[in-house]
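Posted in: Structural Biology > Protein-Ligand Complexes

Title: Requesting predicted complex, 3-methyl-2-oxobutanoic acid in pocket

I'd be grateful if someone could produce the 3D structure tokens for the following input. Sequence and ligand are given below.
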Amino acid sequence: MRTNINQIKEMKQKGERITMLTAYDYTTAQIIDAVGIPLILVGDSLGMVVLGYESTIPVTMDDMIHHTKAVVRGAKNAMIIGDMPFMTYTVSEEEALRNAARFIQEGGAQAIKLEGGVTVAATVKRIVECGIPVMGHIGLTPQSIHQFGGFRVQGKTPAAAAKLIRDAQALEEAGAFSVVLETVPAPLAKLITQRLHIPTIGIGAGPDCDGQVQVVHDILGSYTDFVPKHAKQYTHLASIMSSAIAEYFAEVKAGQFPTAQQSFAMDESLLAGLTRQPATPIHEK
Ligand code: KIV
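-- Reply #1 --
Done. Output follows.
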């Protein structure tokens, strides 16, 4: 049985910490699921960590559906949350509903996530009324990066902090089952977490949120050039991959790969028969 939103809400009540991790493909989803992580987000960070864009803005619904399907095939126990891309839920409520439905119907996800607070609350309410669980996302919402003027900590002034509290409450009132708090001061995240009945899931929001989310590439050290401040590298996959690939490259060049172990044998008499026959040019057959 997959994790459901009631279990996630109960985790807050019981004081059990919630873990969420992103995934974009079948094999990674399988590994995360086998570890027992209850929430997998097919984030639109896909655009940056898989597709090589500079931001999440170019990501399309079709990109997201394609990757959501792969994750759903890989993870059988976690709740899969599809991240709605830029402008797919803000033009009209009708469009938002259709796109949210695609994640569930085509993608096989169990919930969606979207960015924004008070401004998207009415849309969240409609999506929830249609039976689709919604996770909110406030603070440093990467789809608004041009509006923010860069990746900056949010909620640092009294007015900005008060706005974030209102945004979080608006999402709860609209029926969201949880809210991601991204890159906000830890004490503010703690205050929001205390005020809400639904769980907060932090990323760069300190230790007092009900749960934590990370981009899987960040915690695995898949980059050589950039480590976000909020991420801890639990391994250095980039260097592990690089030395394995370099070894393969060297062995092919030196004729050391493949060996008999990676090759397939053939019946000796069949081979002898073939070698006795003169090679026939294809056009004479
Ligand atoms: O797209 C994403 O991966 C996200 C997380 C960082 C919360 O939105």
